[in-house]
Design goal:
By secondary structure, this protein is mainly alpha-helical. The protein has helices spanning about 10-20, 30-35, 40-50, 75-90, 90-95; strands spanning about 25, 55-60, 70-75. α1 crosses α4.
Length: about 120
């Protein structure tokens, strides 16, 4: 079965958030707040994007006081190019990085819900 190349509305929202600050390492909670995605949607998308080498992932350095280390994410060089292309071709709400909430098929800024990255 050939690999699907189109991105879901949720993935486009995540790509828009990452592309807004492409050189910054971002943690999942920050991305969840910015996109409105729930963890059960966000983290599987991040794993798929990392598997496709669109996103780099690493552990936070050091031992932060009072909390576990965070997993951090940012776009790869090829990932930034793919995100830019996908966002340019996407309907305006996803390209603007509007919040997309799982289960909201017609949420403002969300567009239609699709299956997966």
């Amino acid at each position: 079965m050939p690999r699907r190349t189109a991105f879901s509305a949720q993935t486009l929202a995540l790509l828009a958030a990452l592309a807004a600050r492409p050189s910054d390492w971002r943690h999942g909670y920050d991305l969840a707040r910015e996109t409105g995605l729930k963890s059960g949607t966000l983290y599987p998308i991040l794993v798929r994007l990392a598997d496709r080498v669109i996103v780099q992932a690493c552990w936070e350095e050091g031992e932060p006081a009072g909390r576990p280390r965070r997993h951090l994410y940012r776009l790869t060089t090829d990932g930034l190019a793919a995100a830019t292309t996908a966002l340019a071709a996407a309907p305006a709400p996803a390209a603007r990085g509007g919040a997309v909430r799982s289960g909201d098929a017609a949420a403002p800024g969300g567009g239609a819900q699709a299956a997966s990255a």
